[in-house]
Fold:
Amino acid sequence: MVVRMKKILKWIGIIVALLLIVLVVYVIYVFAAYDRLPDKMTLEVQKNGEDSEFETEEEFSEKESFRIMTYNIGFGAYQPDYSFFMDGGKYSWAKDAESVTEAVGGAGELVSSVDPDFVLLQEVDRDGTRSYHIDELELLGQYMKGYYYVYAQNYDSPFLFYPPWQPHGANKAGIVTYSRGEVVDTMRRSLPISESFSKFVDLDRCYSISRIPVKDGKMLCIYNIHMSAYGSSDAIRTGQLSMLYGDMEIDYAAGNYVICGGDFNHNLRIEYQENEPDWAHLFPRESLPEGFRMALDEVEDETAVSHNTCRDTGAPYDEDTTYTVTLDGFIISDNITVESYKHIDSGYQFSDHDPVVMEFALE
Structure:
């Protein structure tokens, strides 16, 4: 009996030792695989197809008004019945490959129906375990014919064995800017992020800058941003905004027009909502540099923005009970006039976010 017990303990010790070795090797792999792209990268400008019915570059630059749209497509996973594990929900992957294709295609059709001149998209997966390795940028190309586009990678994780029942895996994703006018200058800025272990799930946050000639030798400078989520510290949020504002001020001082749009991961409303969770930080309007304002504040018809742009994903969407908040929108320079501004209510059909559309004129 004693001998048998010793053998059992020996095998238990061997198994525990092997598990520790595997764990150590995995931790080494995660740290070794971690890498951020260099700051101030020039991004490649591509065009999706040949010129179509869109205006020539000269005609485009002389347009009296433009339409811009921002939309976080949630890597094609967040249909109304979806909940995400990091928010207390059930899943870490999309339901299946077919649902990813359906959600991204639906988002593409929604964008196309708005007929915007510029489109800012976030959470576009290129190769992800969570999205069944579907290249969503290629899929979106079916709906964005004739646009110039600029892709900036902001997520490239090693294989994450969490949660254990459905490991999040390895994922590459980014933000995409589409423009009907020719993009002649680009840059990718690497935002400051936490240096703690959380950096492995908040990888390589960035924003992209796309500059389009418009008139009188000036540029329309479009910033596409997806800021760090609510788990980040005040110092990280402040650092990210400080970097962003610095670049925007340089473009504005040069006489250019500046629009920054995307998912700010801040509540863009002026006041807290009832029963608002701790993570829904108010956007610090007082931090906006001179010459810039929140476009949402220009809205006179409140019904146009009564629908919030993001839902909580701790459980499937319920119109009556799910918490919602406005995280998406635009910051504009004061040489831009807002002609209309609207939150599109799709019922979060294709993502946990819904789009924002703004029509504007250059003064």
Summary: The longest helix spans residues 2-33. DSSP finds five helices and 15 strands in the chain.
